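step=encode ok
step=design start
structure_in=
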């Protein structure tokens, strides 16, 4: 009996993803050795726009991509994933072309893995920076370590400054948005408003009653991720991480913008080891907007 020839993969329809797609999205992550991260997908699909291609074998999704809009100033792109069994057949290129057509003139930014970078370069993205992923038990690597989370973090620069930290309260949100805008360089109120529900902990740093930084801690499988991390300087960033690290006995993970070498050195002393590295790339703008000196870590690599 004659069976119809399979649909060419690059002609498969692209559809919008919604919260009903959390499990197939997580399955696709697992297929590529990424954490399943349904919790993160939940945030991404409610605050951003997910695109997917259903697998022609009927087993979930063959490919995903996500855009996170920040008005006309910026759209972040992330979660570009193609199931291993459909790799190298043009699905990622097709999804990226679709996204680029959809956003029109809005500048794009993303964190590229080594696997993704050649495609983005081919599509006209330029490298503008790097991020280092570090992870491990916070406090395990200091002098006298391994120590566990309760041991003091080594050479805490914060102890020389008068920065204090505390859990964020509901009425901090406005001040947090005001602090964030010039640092991130685009309005991400729609994300920040979701942080209290998304995070296990949202911590703010203050000096003389003025907000000088904030950071969130959120769960990713067995790990707790620190991000976003916005701080006036390294000392405030350290104070925030130390405070968040003390609230959990799980391993921590942070994607630190590579220019922040002092923080990376301190994290290494604190027991967090290099895990991987990504390249920050932009399209339509020469660099990320905002203030790189105060931007220490993104919320997730998919959101900036
Ligand atoms: C990166 C990824 C999405 C590419 O998906 P894909 O559908 O296989 O890619 P395409 O078939 O559209 O290929 C597009 C181009 O990407 C590059 N590319 C694809 N896979 C690659 C790989 N494993 N290593 C290096 N380059 C690769 C090539 O330039 C390719 O063009 P070519 O086939 O003409 O040489 C896929 O490998 C994947 O899901 N990887 C794991 C998750 C990941 O790293 N995602 C990127 C996040 S930034």
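sequence_out=
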């Amino acid at each position: 009996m004659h069976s119809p020839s399979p649909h060419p993969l690059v002609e498969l329809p692209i559809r919008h993803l919604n919260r009903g797609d959390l499990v197939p999205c997580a399955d696709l992550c697992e297929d590529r050795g990424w954490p399943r991260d349904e919790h993160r997908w939940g945030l991404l699909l409610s605050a951003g726009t997910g695109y997917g291609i259903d697998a022609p074998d009927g087993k979930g999704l063959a490919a995903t991509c996500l855009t996170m809009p920040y008005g006309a100033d910026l759209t972040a792109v992330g979660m570009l994933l193609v199931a291993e069994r459909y790799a190298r057949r043009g699905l990622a290129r097709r999804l990226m072309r679709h996204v680029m057509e959809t956003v029109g003139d809005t500048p794009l930014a993303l964190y590229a893995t080594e696997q993704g970078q050649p495609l983005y370069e081919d599509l006209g993205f330029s490298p503008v920076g790097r991020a280092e992923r570090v992870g491990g038990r916070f406090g395990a690597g200091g002098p006298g370590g391994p120590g566990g989370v309760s041991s003091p973090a080594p050479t805490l620069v914060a102890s020389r400054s008068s920065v204090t930290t505390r859990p964020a309260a509901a009425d901090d949100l406005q001040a947090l948005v005001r602090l964030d805008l010039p640092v991130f360089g685009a309005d991400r109120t729609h994300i920040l408003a979701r942080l209290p529900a998304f995070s296990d902990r949202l911590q703010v740093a203050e000096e003389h009653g003025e907000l000088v930084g904030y950071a969130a801690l959120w769960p990713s499988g067995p790990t707790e991720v620190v991000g976003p991390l916005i701080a006036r300087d390294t000392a405030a960033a350290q104070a925030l991480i130390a405070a968040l690290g003390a609230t959990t006995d799980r391993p921590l993970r942070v994607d630190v913008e590579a220019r922040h070498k002092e923080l990376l050195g301190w994290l290494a002393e604190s027991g967090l080891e290099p895990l991987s590295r990504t390249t920050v790339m932009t399209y339509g703008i020469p660099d990320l907007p905002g203030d790189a000196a105060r931007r220490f870590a993104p919320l997730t690599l998919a959101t900036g």
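step=design ok
step=annotate ok -> Residues 1-5, 143-154 have pLDDT under 50 and may be disordered.
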